[in-house]
Amino acid sequence: MARATRPQGEVTRGTTNPNRLRRADRWTAATQGRLLRAAPRPLAVDLGYGATPITTIELYTRLRAVAPAVEVVGIEIEPDRVAAGRAVQARYPGLSFRRGGFELPVDRPPTLVRAFNVLRQYDEDAAWRAWDDLTARLDPSGVLIEGTCDEVGRRAVWVTLDRTGPRTITFAAHLPSLDRPSDLAPRLPKTLIHRNVEGEAVHTLLADFDRAWAIAAPQSVFGARARWTTAVEHLAATHPICATPPHGGRGRWRLGELTLPWSAVAPTR
């Protein structure tokens, strides 16, 4: 009898809460729905979903709303977490749970992989290797969305990658509780979090965004959304790397999002 292969990766803390990943899910459904609908057999993987399957179920619900044919697989290293998912999967056709890790034990290359709060415990080099490993397993048109958020999902940063590497970075926040954009720095992906220092692009971007936020302070009388939108517009007009407007337009900016090309934060390696 063949010996079972140990899943690749380490067990995460498992912290999760309902709606913790709502901001990323909302963005994913809006920006990747067309990709999922175009795939002949769309498959989405939620890698390292944590102690309970709730955020995988939420991802399934939100993706199915824009791509009804998508199948979703939750993958975890810890057997008890997999068992918790399997206990409820029968209620959701097209949803399943499996034990595994970065090797992605699925029957075909996924169209989309989400890995949130998974790489925080790894060092920077290991995080880069994980990006390479995961993107190599994607469908040729697929994407990896890797990021971090706080415990209740009010602040999040994620990177979208394809087989060629990172393409965009998204900053997302609950605006009424945000003091300044650089408060999102602790949520930077592991490939960037130690690069938030003088001389690195991500540090320059956050400093410029803080200045734009300060300039936009008079807009606070119209609410936090108006201030954020004005700050994004000022950043786009003044930041040296923002040669084109941030992705998504005002409709997405008003949701407390800012999506930029990866080149705006790419580190010196």
From TrEMBL:
Alphabetical keyword list: Methyltransferase, Transferase
Residue ranges of the region described as Disordered: 1-24
Coiled coil: none
A Gene Ontology BP annotation from the UniProt entry: methylation
Keyword Transferase appears in the UniProt entry: yes
Molecular functions (GO terms): methyltransferase activity
Gene3D superfamilies, per database record: Vaccinia Virus protein VP39 (3.40.50.150)
Protein name as annotated: Class I SAM-dependent methyltransferase
Organism: Actinomadura harenae
